[in-house]
Structures are given as structure tokens and as C-alpha cells.
Amino acid sequence: MTEPCDLTAVEARRLIGVKKLSPVELLESCLGRIAAVNHAVNAVVALDEDRARKTAKQAEADVMSGAKLGPLHGLPIGIKDLEEVEGLRTTWGSPIFANHIPTRDEAMVTNIRRAGAIVTAKTNTPEFGAGANTRNIVYGATGNAFDPTRSAAGSSGGSAVALACGMFPICSGSDTGGSLRNPAAFNGIVGYRPSPGLVPAERRGHGWSALPVLGPMARTATDAALLLSAMADDDAQDPLAYTLPGRRVRGGDRDLFPPMAVDLGSLRVAATADFGISPTEQHIRRVFASRVAALTPLFGRVEEATPDCRGTDEAFEVLRAASFLSAHAEKVRTRPQDCGPNIIANVEEGLRYSLSDYSRAASDQTRIYRGWQGFFQNHDIIISPAITISPRPWTELYPSEIDNQPTRTYFHWLSLAYAVTLVGHPAISLPLGVDEAGMPFGLQIVGPRGGDALVMAVAAAIEAAVAGDASLARPVPDIAALKAAPPISGMPQFKTWG
């Protein structure tokens, strides 16, 4: 029998709405799963049980009284520890903020609460989201849901693992160089990077930068669409979340949920293992080729092709370093002992660049973006692997080599994701079975500019098409094995920078 915590978000919300599942019952099931397996993976790092229980009881009362229910009514949610939650410890994975208790929710959390979700806990993240290995010296490392000795990726690693393990039906995440998509791929769940501004982010330091976004994570594409529909909004604090005079352009968009119908057979698909720039390992290339072969009959046309991404690495490195410099230079200058190696490296890199470097990077970004627009005149979507490697041990801070070739930076292995980030296109990581090592494989689906509804629809359609195929369906971790596993906190290097 399916435990309530293992239900999809859409099904759980449906059952709540017809009074066949109590929000209290669902919350207790989620809390029970956290208690049973979190010791093995360290995904959930700050619980708010008392307030969550009180909220769940009120949600139950609202159902029974016939009150109007929001789209997320009664669904427990984990919030990534980069987003502020009123009254709940929010650390950004940094010892500088180890005891920080926010006095307000940030706007995204406010929208989620307004939609009826029950904010229950924070999920782990690397320090300030830097790097794609979820570990810090405040809470320690997060292990992969399928093998706790392996990396959960990041920076939304805690959310991804919590979802895979059934601790929550939905979670929040954020993405600059793939922080929604990379951990989704490593843990067999869905991570969606929306178009910049679709989900407002009022704390983004460089307000006009399209690199960092907030977005949804879930176990299915349809669940992610449900959460995205509640997160999307207009907010004047985010310069990218613009309005037109007298007309809202986002929020309550019925094209997002339920996902619109799409005829996969009409789509022109470009398939690329590397965007011409990524150090994708041979293992992942083989798995991707097998997935392309399996999916090709679904589409109208599939061809091996990629937009021109030359200069992507250099442009992303400079623009990313600029944001780290403004956000963290003062911390590194005054409290270097409390800053991890990734933060320090990024600040030092930023200090080496000149205004000329920044100008060139911005120009290259624009050139590459315009090339993508031409590419999408002849293609409807792009598919690629979501990440370049199969999960490695989390004790490896980052992959310094792939297939015996050195990586150019500590985040070069994320270039399949940041190639998309640089041009601001929406993208999703969809789980499609496991790789040759038995670890989850994620397919990245990239849409045209502003094509959020299309990407969600395509992901949901593929998900439905492969649902009966055990080799392509979403993999599920061994919960019994996790329950019996030793605590991850006992592993060497658990609470170190690496």
C-alpha cells in the first residue's frame, strides 16, 4: 500500500480536496519518513514540526468546513536553506549565519504559503550555493538517495534527496549553474529552471542578471508544474518580473498547470551530448545515446545538432564571478576563516577580472544568445544529458578530471547546465531510468525563449509515454536500505569544507 508521503503532489492534493486524505495524516507520514531515513542522507537540516502540525490542523479544518482551498493546500514542502523563512533557522550553509533566524518570509515563501503549502523544514545546500556538492561545515554533507557515499550534487541537493526519499511531495530550489537540474539528475527527480523573472527573487544582488533563478522541484513533471504555477508571480522588487501597463504577465498562468497538451510527433528535436563545449564522460554519452534512440519514435524529427556555444565557458565564468564578488568579497576580506574554498576561489577570481573582461563577457553572452534564437527557428526543443558524469563520492569536492582530462574550473563539469543558463532559456531535468552504474540518469529538455509552458508540457508527455517502461521510468531509492544504513554523520570528512 502506498504511504501518503509517497503520493505524487497532484494525487495528494486531489485526495485532500475530496476529503479522502487529511493534511495532518500527510504531514505525519512525511515527518515519519524524515525520522526514518534522514540520518542516512542528511537532506533535512532544520525542522519546524510544531508550527507545521498547527498549520496542518488548520488546513484540515478548512477542508472540513468547505473553505476555498489553494492549489497547494495541505502539501508539506521543504525550503532550500538559501531562502529565508520567518522564525526558522536559515544559514545559507555558512558559519557566519549559523544562528540566523529571519523575521520575515521572502516573497517566494509567502506565495507558497498563500497557495496552501505547509512549510515544514529547510533542506541542505553548499555554502551560499557555491558548487554542486551539497556539503558545508554548519550541517555537514548530504548523501545521494541511491548511495549515501556518493554526491547528491547541488546546490539544491537537500531538496532533491528529500524528494527522492519521500520526505516531501514538493520542494523549492534555485539555479545558477544548474543547481536545480544537477541534483535532480543525480537523485532521480525533477528540477525545473524557469525563464528569468517568472518566479520573483527579491534578494538577487544583481537585479538585472538573468543567471540566478528560483524554481520548483518534485518527483514528477506535473507536480513541478503545480508548484511552479504557485511560485510564478509579479513582484516589483525583482526587475525581471516586469508587468505591462494594466496587465499582469505572470502569476495564475493556466498554461503552466495542468501542463498544456502537446503533440510530441510534431516536434523538431535537436539532440546534443555536449553543446560542443562540455566534458561529458563517455559513460554518460553512451547512456544518452540509448535514451535518444528510445525517444526518437515519439518525435517528428530528431537530429544531432547544437547551437553555437563557443565562448560560453569564458563568458559564464566572468559573469558568475562578478556576482560572487559583489555578494561575498567583504566576507572573504573580513572573515576568511569562516569562508569555504569555493567562496574564496570565486572572490579571488573576480578580483582578477577587469571591466574590459566583463564587457567582453557581456558581449559574448549577447552574441551567443542571438545565435540560439536563430537555432530555435529550426528546432522546437533541445535534449541533452542534464549533467556530465555519474555520481562520484561526495568526499571529492569537485571533479578535477573527466575521462582523464582536467576540468578547467571547479564548476566546468556543470557546463551542460550553464550553457543554458547563459542564454536564459527554460530547462528541466527529467529522470529517465538509471545509468550503467545503477545511478539515476537525468535528461535535460531545453525550450525556446519564454517557452516554459512548452517545456513543462513536453516533459509531462515524455513522462507519460515511458511510464510503463521499467528501463526509462523514474527510479526509486531503497527506503528499507536507507532506514538500516548507518548515519552519514559518522563518515570521514562529513563536516568539513573538503
List the helices and strands and how they pair.
Blueprint: H1 9-17, H2 23-41, E1 44-47, H3 49-65, E2 76-80, H4 107-114, E3 118-123, E4 135-136, E5 140-141, E6 143-144, E7 147-151, H5 157-164, E8 170-175, H6 181-187, E9 190-193, E10 213-218, H7 221-231, E11 268-271, H8 282-295, E12 301-304, H9 312-334, H10 341-352, H11 355-375, E13 381-385, E14 401-402, E15 405-406, H12 415-423, E16 427-434, E17 440-446, H13 452-465, H14 479-484
Parallel strand pairs: 2-3, 2-8, 11-12, 11-13
Antiparallel strand pairs: 1-3, 4-5, 6-7, 8-10, 9-10, 9-16, 13-17, 14-15, 16-17
Helix pairs in contact: 2-3, 5-6, 7-13, 9-10, 9-11, 9-12
Can you give a write-up of this model?
With 498 residues, the protein is an alpha+beta fold. The protein has one domain: Amidase signature (AS) enzymes, CATH 3.90.1300.10. It contains 14 helices and 17 strands. It has helices at residues 9-17, 23-41, 49-65, 107-114, 157-164, 181-187, 221-231, 282-295, 312-334, 341-352, 355-375, 415-423, 452-465, 479-484, and strands at 44-47, 76-80, 118-123, 135-136, 140-141, 143-144, 147-151, 170-175, 190-193, 213-218, 268-271, 301-304, 381-385, 401-402, 405-406, 427-434, 440-446. The chain has an eleven-stranded mixed beta sheet with strand order 1-3-2-8-10-9-16-17-13-11-12, with helices on both faces.
